[in-house]
């Protein structure tokens, strides 16, 4: 350690010792034995300003509460009044006893009072028997009717009302359905009548036009230029292919004329019904005509002479079930 550092250390230690000895005089001073008493008096004064002085210390409030006079305890409840003793019975003074008559006194004759006349007795009606009013009262008193619980009555009444409302609603719906059905049937009836009327008018117009065209058209040849032997041969050939129509009454008894067109080999090219007006209006005739046309195509080729093509290339063949079924 150098000399300079040693001097600085010694100086600092000496300064600390001097400061502790001089700057802290209370170390050497003796403390007093007793504290002096300070007497204070609390004075209540009214503030001279309207400014709030803040909250007062809680000690003043406690002192005010202690200084306030204590409320006296509530008085005890009054005792219940005693029952008054029964009043003593009143003493009735005894009646004065009549004095005994003096025998020495002179007895005076007593006057005999006249006897009162007996009053006629008034007969009062006998009292009615007491049992009758009770019977009348019993008859007049209403007989109590046993009542069922009100809740059950209310439930039953409510249920009956609901059932009645449902029945009314159901009857109303049924009536509406019946009315709607009647209206629909009436409309359908009118529609059918109108359709029949339109069909009748259409049939009348078609018949009229067909009749007019038939009058204007030239007369067709009833039978082609074939001979009777050729026609018999064709009828015999067609009868093997023809069968009467099934499901329509009277269709197998109708005569149908078919216009047939052939090629050079006898093959059927076309087969048409001659009476088109009847074909349009008669359902039974239409069934027979359809069967005749099918038979002509089924029996093709027909047995016709090949050297006479110009004569039999188009002819009318009459379907007669009487001859075809022989």
What would you say this structure looks like, in words?
The chain has 326 residues and is mainly alpha-helical. Among the domains are: 153-217; 228-324, Fusion Protein Consisting Of Minor Coat Protein, Glycine Rich Linker, Tola, And A His Tag, Chain: A, Domain 2 (2-Layer Sandwich). Helix content is 46%, strand content 6%. It is built from 9 helices and 3 strands. Strands 2-1-3 form a 3-stranded antiparallel beta sheet. A hairpin with a 5-residue loop joins strand 1 (256-262) and strand 2 (268-273). It starts with a helix and ends with a helix.
Number of strands: 3
Q: Specify the CATH class of the domain at 228-324.
A: Alpha Beta
Span between termini: 172 Å
Annotated CATH architecture of the domain at 228-324: 2-Layer Sandwich
Number of helices: 9
Q: State which percent range the strand residues make up.
A: 5-15%
Rg estimate, integer Å: 78 Å
Shape: elongated
Low-confidence stretches: 211-224
Helix content: 40-55%
Main sheet? 3 strands, antiparallel
CATH fold assignment of the domain at 228-324: Fusion Protein Consisting Of Minor Coat Protein, Glycine Rich Linker, Tola, And A His Tag, Chain: A, Domain 2
Order of helices and strands: HHHHHEEHHHEH
Overall residue-averaged pLDDT value: 70
**Class by helix and strand content?**
mainly alpha
Write the layout of secondary structure elements.
Elements: H1 3-22, H2 58-67, H3 131-140, H4 150-216, H5 228-239, E1 256-262, E2 268-273, H6 276-281, H7 283-298, H8 309-312, E3 314-319, H9 321-324
Antiparallel strand pairs: 1-2, 1-3
């Amino acid at each position: 350690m150098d000399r300079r550092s040693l001097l600085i250390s010694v100086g600092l230690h000496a300064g600390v010792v001097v400061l502790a000895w001089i700057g802290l005089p209370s170390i050497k001073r003796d403390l007093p034995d007793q504290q002096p008493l300070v007497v204070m008096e609390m004075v209540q004064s009214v503030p001279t300003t309207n400014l709030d002085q803040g909250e007062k210390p809680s000690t003043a409030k406690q002192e005010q509460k202690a200084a306030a006079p204590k409320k006296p305890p509530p008085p005890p409840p009054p005792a219940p009044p005693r029952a008054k003793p029964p009043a003593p019975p009143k003493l009735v003074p005894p009646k004065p006893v009549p004095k005994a008559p003096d025998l020495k006194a002179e007895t005076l004759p007593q006057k005999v009072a006249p006897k009162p006349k007996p009053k006629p007795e008034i007969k009062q009606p006998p009292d009615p028997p007491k049992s009758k009013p009770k019977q009348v009262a019993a008859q007049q008193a209403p007989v109590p009717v046993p009542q069922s619980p009100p809740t059950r009555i209310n439930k039953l009444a409510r249920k009956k009302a609901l059932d009645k409302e449902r029945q009314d609603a159901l009857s109303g719906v049924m009536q509406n359905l019946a009315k709607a059905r009647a209206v629909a049937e009436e409309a359908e009836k009118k529609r059918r009548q109108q359709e029949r009327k339109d069909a009748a008018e259409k049939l009348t117009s078609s018949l009229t036009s067909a009749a007019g065209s038939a009058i204007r058209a030239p007369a067709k040849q009833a039978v082609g230029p074939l001979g009777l032997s050729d026609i018999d041969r064709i009828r015999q050939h067609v009868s093997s292919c023809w069968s009467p129509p099934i499901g329509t009454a009277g269709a197998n008894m109708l005569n149908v004329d078919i216009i047939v067109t052939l090629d050079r080999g006898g093959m059927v090219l076309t087969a048409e019904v001659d009476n088109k007006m009847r074909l349009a209006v008669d359902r039974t005739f239409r069934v027979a005509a359809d069967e005749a046309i099918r038979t002509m195509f089924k029996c093709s080729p027909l047995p016709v002479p090949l050297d006479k093509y110009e004569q039999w290339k188009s002819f009318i063949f009459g379907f007669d079930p009487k001859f075809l079924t022989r």
